[in-house]
Amino acid sequence: MRTFSDRALEIQPTGVRKMFDLAGDDAISFGLGEPDFQPPKVAIDAFHKAMVDGHNKYTTTAGLPALREKIARSWDSYQSGMNQDNVCITMSGTNALLNLFLTLVNPGENVLLPEPYFPLYGPDVTICGGEDRYYPCKFENEFIPKVEDLQALVDENTVAILYNFPSNPTGGTLNHAQRDALLEFAKQNDLWIISDEVYDRIVFEGEHVSFMGTGYDKVVLVNSFSKTFAMTGWRIGYIISANLEAMAQITKMQYYITACSNDAMQYAVLTAMEEAPDYPDIIANEFMERCEIIVERLNNMPGVECHKPKGAIYVFPKVHVEGMNSEEIALELLKDGVLCSPGSAFGPSGEGHLRFAYTISKEDILRGMDKVEATLNRLNGL
Ligand SMILES: Cc1ncc(COP(=O)(O)O)c(C=O)c1O
After folding, report:
1. Labelling 66: which of 12, 88, 104, 115 has CA 20 to 30 A away?
2. CB 93 within 8 A of CB 196
3. 61 in ligand 1 pocket by Cβ < 6 Å?
4. Is 137 helix (H, G, I), strand (E, B) or coil?
5. Which CATH architecture describes the domain 6-38+279-379?
6. What pLDDT was estimated at residue 136?
C-alpha cells in the first residue's frame, strides 16, 4: 500500500540529535551549534516596538527594502554595486538552503556536497529529487577539498557545488588561493556555487574569505543571523547574489515556501545591524578565546589530534581509542557527563572524530575537558 511520498520516506532523522536526546540535564553540553548569547538588547527592544507599531503583517516576498539595502551595503567591500534587488530575506539559513536547491536542481541532477557535512544538505537535495554526491574534506588537508577529488565526481548531470567555509562541523576556513582553486573548478564545469557562509563573521584570523565578489555570475550565497547575532530562535536569514536573474527565480520560489519572512523581526534585525554592528565581532572574540582553550586541552589528551580552527564555533578532533568507533566514544563520554557529537553523524569520513561545539562558558569548557580527559585516560587504560 502506498503511504507517504518517496521523498519523505527517503530522508532520515539527523544523527546529531541522537546524543542530545540521550543526555541528562546535568551533562556539560558541547552538543549544539547554538551560541550561548542573547541577541543585542537594542534588537529585542526594536522587535517589541515594531510589533507595537503595527508591523505584524505580510511583507513583500523578498523582505523589508531597508533591511535588504543594509545587507547589500554590508557586502560592499566584497562586491560593490549591489542593492535590495540582490537580496531575498528568508526564514533562516535552513530555509535559504532549501530554496536554493529547489531553484537550481532538477530531479535526476546531482549536487556536490562537502563531507563531513552540515546534516541538512543531503536530505535537502533528496527532497528536490536530486542526487547528493559527497566530496571529502580531510583532516590531513586541514579539511579543505582537493580539486582532483571534486573533478572525479562531476558528470553531465552535476549542476551545483556547495561550499561551506567557515565550516560546520570542521571549523575549516579558506585562504584566497584555496578559494580561487575551488572557484576555478566550478567555473570550468559550469556549476552553480551555493556558498553557505553563515559563520562569515565568526573568523579568528584576518578577513573572511568569501565567494562573493569573485566575478563568477553563478554564485548564490546563504547567510543567517542565527550565529553571528545569536538569533537562532528568530529563524531569519537571507540569500544574496550579484546575479539578478537568479534572484528573481529565488524570490519567486520563496513566495511558494513562506510567502515572506517575519514582519516585526526584520525591523529588529535592521536595528541590530545599525545599532549593534560590532556585536558579531564581540562574540567572535569570545569564541576565539574558547577555541584556544579547548584546542590546547584536547591536544594534550591521549589519542587526540586537533587542528586549531580559524572560524566557526566547532572543533573536530581525531580521537582514537583502540577498538571503539566515534559513537561508542561519545556514549562513554556521555556516561561521564559530557555531551558531544560523534563524527559519524556528519558522514562516514567523520568516523574517528568527535565534534565539540564551544558554545558554553570557559569555566564549563574547562570542567568538560577535565571529564573528557578522565574518560579517555580510562578508555586507554592509563
Ligand atoms: C553550516 C550551516 N549552515 C546553515 C545553518 C542553518 O542556520 P539557521 O537555519 O539557524 O539560519 C547552520 C546551523 O547550524 C549551519 O551550521
Report:
1. 104
2. yes
3. no
4. coil
5. Alpha-Beta Complex (3.90)
6. 96
Q: How far apart are CA 179 and CA 170, in angstroms?
A: 17
Question: Which of 92, 203, 226, 359 best tests ligand 1's pocket when mutated (most atoms within 8 Å of CB)?
Answer: 226
The alpha carbon of 374 and the centre of ligand 1 are apart by a number of angstroms equal to: 32
Is this model's pTM higher than 0.85 or not?
yes
- Bridge partners (DSSP) of residue 345 are none
- The identity of residue 321, as a single letter, is V
Its CATH class, for the domain covering 41-275, is alpha beta
Q: In 10 A of CB 56, how many CB atoms?
A: 11
Name the amino acid, one letter, at 124.
Answer: D
Quick count: other Cβ atoms within 10 Å of Cβ 9? Answer: 9
| Domain segments of the chain as ranges | 6-38+279-379, 41-275
The single-letter code of the amino acid at 95 is N
Q: How far is CA 199 from CA 58, 172, 287, 308, 330, in A?
A: 28, 11, 12, 16, 25
Peptide bond into 116 cis (omega under 30): yes
Q: How far apart are CA 48 and CA 54, in angstroms?
A: 10
Residue 94 Cβ inside 6 Å of ligand 1? The answer reads yes
Rounded-to-integer distance, Cα 143 and Cα 127, Å:
27
Which of 34, 90, 227, 239 most suits a substitution to test ligand 1, by most atoms within 8 Å of the C-beta?
A: 227
> Confidence band (pLDDT; 50, 70, 90) for 301?
very high
